[in-house]
Amino acid sequence: MHRILFITDDWANKKALKSELLERGFSVAQSSSAEVLREAFVPPDKLDLVIVDLERCAIESAKLCHAIKRERPLKELPLVLLATEGHLGRLEVGWGFEDYLTLPVSGTWLAERLKFLLWKLHRVEVTNGFSLGGLVIDFERYEVHVKGAPVDLTYKEFELLKFLATHPGKVFTREALLDKVWGYDYYGGTRTVDVHIRRLRAKIETGPTAYIETVRNVGYKFFGPPA
Length: 227
Hints:
Blueprint: E1 2-7, H1 15-23, E2 26-31, H2 33-37, E3 49-53, H3 61-70, E4 79-83, E5 99-102, H4 107-122, E6 129-132, E7 135-138, E8 143-146, E9 149-151, H5 155-165, E10 172-173, H6 174-182, H7 191-204, E11 212-215, E12 219-222
Parallel strand pairs: 1-2, 1-3, 3-4, 4-5
Antiparallel strand pairs: 6-7, 7-8, 8-9, 10-12, 11-12
Helix pairs in contact: 1-4, 5-6, 5-7
């Protein structure tokens, strides 16, 4: 069951959408825009997606979206906007949303669109292992092999490789990697990432084979599997 946080200031007119989502197998938690901006706001656990209803919203759209993306439990979740025709042309990708639907929208169409979005975002899922070319990563045993030979990695090297490998093709800044792998409370500099990347490459990239790419002036990404 997918869990959704539905942020709306017009719940009386959005009950039908909630009912349809529930019938389609979603779990829906409700919140108002004002609640999201309160310092004491605590998002529900184990969310999969956030919907923001911009119709009759008491908070300015950009401000609300940016506030959501600042919340640590919410910032990595896909954000879907419900917009009126009046919002079209004013939506900006910098707000961090993955998709939007124009109101009015049927509950059936909303549910199907959300299911497709979640499938698209998670279709590269890895459970207990990853394999690409001669590189094999066992997440449960914390083991890495290259062309059948075991590779000795430190814990952080393994976690860094695991994170990059499970997000193939996506570019991450050094700051983002520090946050995701070392944690937000780590006080070291971004140079730490460069050092670990260099060590990883020396251990897993043999001959012409390359798995981690440097994106100049941005960060690093893991090569995705062949199309």
